[in-house]
Specification:
Layout lengths: L4 E2 L17 E2 L5 H19 L5 H22 L3 H27 L5 H25 L4
Antiparallel strand pairs: 1-2
Length: 140
């Protein structure tokens, strides 16, 4: 397995110019990764504010959020059907985040504004994962 290392100004064929700039791995160049990271920040913030009695559901949302991000990263280290498999897992985890947060909202354990921010990030992430998966499967 090979990992491509990029520089921030890289347009790849890797002609970077600043040797002091931060080195980026494949997944760090993806907007989907940045969105998954933002989603995780939002979910953890929600989870920390959840009232007593709902911690189990907040924990589920946080684990699913981490899974969405980590499986996306894992996918970038794979190719073909293997990559598509991990992208599908990532999408499933993102959908699980959405369902868990909806239940927290319905139970009064999450405020509507936080839920709306997380929902927007989830929808965006799922759209990106669908596109990445179609490319990985060769149909995009």
């Amino acid at each position: 397995m090979s990992v491509t290392v990029h520089r921030p100004a890289c347009s790849c064929a890797c002609s970077y110019s600043d040797p002091d700039s931060e080195i980026l791995l494949d997944h760090e160049r993806l907007d989907a990764y940045r969105v998954s990271d933002q989603l995780d920040v939002e979910v953890v913030a929600i989870g920390r504010r959840v009232p007593r009695g709902h911690a189990w559901l907040a924990d589920q949302a946080m684990r699913a959020s981490a899974s969405a991000s980590l499986n996306l990263v894992e996918a970038m280290g794979r190719r073909g059907a293997d990559r598509a498999h991990f992208l599908r897992i990532s999408k499933g985890s993102a959908l699980e985040v959405d369902a868990a947060l909806q239940r927290l909202l319905r139970r009064g354990a999450c405020d509507a504004a936080s839920r709306a921010r997380a929902r927007a990030l989830t929808v965006r992430l799922v759209q990106m994962l669908v596109k990445l998966n179609s490319v990985a499967e060769g149909s995009g």
